[in-house]
Fold these 2 entries.
Entry 1:
Amino acid sequence: MRIAVSSDMDEPVARLLAEELRRRGHEVLPHGALRPGADSRWAHCSEHAARDVADGRADQAVVCCWTGTGASIAANKVPGVRAALCADAYTADGARRWNDANVLALSLRLTSGPLLTEILDAWFAGTPSEDAEDRENVTRVARLDGDRP
């Protein structure tokens, strides 16, 4: 799987994230502080990673900033992206299952190495729900992209 990864800071957990994704066999498309010379401001690098997903260059993305909030907000402004800020494995599983999230947002401040592994395990094990109500919610959210001016 091709996964766009962005971080606004060159933090150990951001480097570990890219290494862990590669170890799991994924192709990493780096943005921000993970790519020398790239714009590392959270709004810019998160947008670029999200656009990789929306435009089909990546299957999913992981966006990071100090709290994860700004990265998730920026990613969610890109039509077709459903970014979820996940601080634990249960939230990551639910984001994939009930929200069909295609972008994982992480806090550089709160995410430790062991927690990162748990979150990624849950994220990649999670599959979108086939429940009619869950699908209807995801469809409704997708329609909101068309409501933007």
Entry 2:
Amino acid sequence: MTDSTASQKLGVLGAGNIGRPVGRHWLAAGHAVAFGSRSPEHLASFVAPLGDRARATTLTEAAASSDVVLLSVPHPALGELLDSVGDLLAGKIVIDATNPVVLTDDGRVVSTLGGGLTQGRSTAKQLPDSTVVRAFTHIMDELLWSRGTQQRHFWGMAIAGDDAEANQVAGQLVHDAGFTPVDLGGLDDSAALDPGGAVFPHMFTPTDLRLAAGLVG
């Protein structure tokens, strides 16, 4: 897999600790990125040095104007976000990087979702007219920029989704961000990259990631 040669219009909904480094990687790969926020004016100092392919805008505008959208708001804000922009995401690939994470009283990191429901499947149920792929979830956010620039493609990044073409698009965007995509399968098979899963919150080489996720014996 090589870096993208065709620029895409990408939206980042939630320009925080995940959205900012991922968006910067995509800009460096030649894409146009709309950073969506409830308060886009607060992003002016961040976006200004990034060039004319970067812009700060509202969540609604970023969702409407982009071909592929990254969900990177804090998980407690996800339901409200999807209620407000879900219709604008119809027919689009939506990369869900949100994590329903909680620390238990005995110190375990687990998902807040019960009944074996994965985060990817939960989002897909809320966006029935979109194609949801999980990515950018299991690597600690403070490492997304440094590892994607200083050790490009050395580290694996798990992805999961039900649509092969969408997984390929998301995988290319993972590659453009400096990581090597490792496909874990469908959304129902993606518990390994959710909080409490086998690869959360850790970094692996692509081979070790496949081993940790149980893809090879």
